[in-house]
Design brief:
69 residues; mainly alpha; 3 helices; rod-shaped; transmembrane; transmembrane helix
Length: 69
């Protein structure tokens, strides 16, 4: 159906309005989900990145001089 056919009658007009609101709701939901995933990725990356190193760095305890400083 063309856009002109959707707006010719009352039944067609309600279908067009419902379609637009559903489309807008879908865009909002998609934006929220996408934004949430980007935020989650940005927060989790600094914690996960050290575990993905190819060369593991050994644990070296601090000396007493370093602790006092």
């Amino acid at each position: 159906m063309s856009e002109e056919a959707l707006f010719t009658g009352r039944a067609g007009q309600s279908v067009a309005i419902e379609s637009r609101s559903r489309s807008r709701l879908g865009l909002v939901v998609t934006g929220l989900v996408g934004g949430s995933l980007v935020a989650l990725y940005a927060v989790a990356t600094p914690f996960v990145a050290p575990a993905l190193r190819k060369i593991c760095l050994p644990f070296v305890p601090a000396t007493t001089a370093q602790v006092e400083n």
